Amino acid sequence: GSSAYYPGYPQVKTDASGNVTLWLFPNGPYYTYTLTAIPPVGSPLVTFNVKDVAVSSDMTLILSLQYARPTQGVCPLSEGFWKTHPDLWPLKKLWLGGQSYTQAELLSILQMPVKGDASLILVHQLIAAKLNVANGSDPVPVIAAVTNADSLLRTFTGKLPYGTKSSSSAGRTMTDLASTLDSYNNGRVTPGCVPPTFVRTSTATSVTATQEQEIPQLVIRVGALVSQGVLNQGQEQSLTAKLDVALHHIESGNKKGAGNLLRAFLHEVEALTAAGILPLEARRELADAVLGILAQLEK
Q: Rounded to an integer, what is the distance from CA 97 to the centroid of its chain?
């Protein structure tokens, strides 16, 4: 069966602890619920939907509302900039396709001459794009290209380079993706961005807190899992909402609140893995990243 709280009916509200009880008939396989949380007028939070909720018995669902984020971001920087400024990198490790690379490995790849290898043409731009997102650039214009690039690289075994001829079918796809990423890295699709500010000290160079750099990478990875058909949109919204609020807490200096949201993210990842939805490799990648952020928060 199905049921709904229709518009115009008295709407249920959360109590002082943020909890609310909904009475819903069990549903499926043909119907699922959409739960909509509407924040009070004037709140910095935005309306949030969780779709495709299946109810078979009493259950608890945590909805983490998203903050309205400013649209202005840091301007992306080119591949050439990142290649020649390793001391300014916001991350010292990146995942490319299904492989993890250290900064030393990434720098080695960036120094390799292309010589017609489409995998290098693509990955040079992909490395720069991921560093730009981690540095605070708006990820929206590049999410699809990054996701597609990672998916394509996953079809190859081992680590880069793959010696892919630009004239091959895969090579043409790689060069097309590289062109899109190049436009992003050179600021052609991020109007209104602000130049990044690098803070230098006598002993080190930093940009922003490590946690603020790595969470956008996690958001992109979750989006990639949706594009690959691993997660549905409801699961994506639930996971990314936790990351978004955690990032807001970090920016506000609330480490405890951020830690709680990140642990909730981990619990959901474990539940998705136990249910056979999330592959072990994806679970490991997400969990490793979150545990690294938590370690930084607890210092």
A: 14
C-beta atoms surrounding 52 within 10 Å: 12
Instruction: For residues 229 and 211, give the distance between their C-alpha atoms in angstroms, rounded to a whole number.
Output: 28
- CB-count exposure of residue 96 (10 Å: 0-12, 13-18, 19+): buried
Amino acid identity, residue 190?
T
pLDDT tens sequence across 189-233:
988 788 876 654 433 333 333 566 678 778 877 877 887 788 888
Query: Which one, of 214, 253, 221, 255, lies nearest residue 236 by Cα?
Result: 221
What is the H or E stretch that residue 87 is in?
A: none
C-beta of residue 138 within 8 angstroms of C-beta of residue 88: no
pLDDT digits (tens, 9 = 90+) for 57-109: 888 877 777 666 555 678 899 999 899 889 889 888 888 988 889 999 999 99
Q: What DSSP state is assigned to residue 202?
A: S
